Amino acid sequence: MTDMKVYYMIHADSLRGLVPFLLIDGERVWHAAKKRTTNGTMYYLFLETTQPNVQYIKLWRDSKGNLLTYIGNITKPIFLAEEPEIFEIDITLAYLEVSDNAMYIGNNYFKFSFPVIGVVRRLNQGATRPLAFLLYQLLIHDTPAVQEPAGSSGGDGINGNPT
After folding, report:
1. What is the pLDDT of residues 69-126, one digit of tens each?
2. Hey, how many other C-beta atoms are within 10 angstroms of the C-beta on 117?
């Protein structure tokens, strides 16, 4: 079992440099994005895309491996020049079990210090599965000790080949 410290961080979020992608969950399409920084990859999941108030959650890890989160609103449209990649998440999610404050990924069990999944579930219950997919990416593929250089795209999932 891995006890994962989770911190909610309130800060100004520029939303610049986002690389869009779509998560396909059955017949539902979820808008998401990632941003590479010198400290790793930040993931954005848009929980509600109805204008004028678009809600999103941002997830990333600090240099100590803690999970950082931020929930915000966008009141103006964001224009992104890149074509979004598409990821079907059904297959990956077959191997994940989640609760409000924990997640099983294969033989790995992550217990969160606060219920990050439960918070998102209360905001938009349908967003639980795409959130689990992004947490999977962050906890398994984007470990702080193994960061890829900016512009590199090796590995699995979102940071490499579409699933």
Report:
1. 999 988 888 888 889 999 998 777 777 889 999 999 888 899 999 999 999 999 999 9
2. 20
**Domain boundaries in the chain?**
2-145
- Which residues fall within 8 angstroms of residue 102, CB to CB, at 6 or more apart? 109, 110, 111, 112
The Cα 85–Cα 149 span in angstroms is 20
Residue 130 DSSP code: H
pTM of the model: 0.83
Q: Which of 78, 75, 76, 74 lies closest to 58, judged by CA?
A: 74
Number of other CB atoms surrounding residue 20 within 10 Å: 17
Select from 49, 58, 47 the least CA-distant residue to 6.
58
CA distance 138 to 25: 18
Q: Is 21 left (phi over 0), alpha (psi -120 to 50) or beta?
A: beta
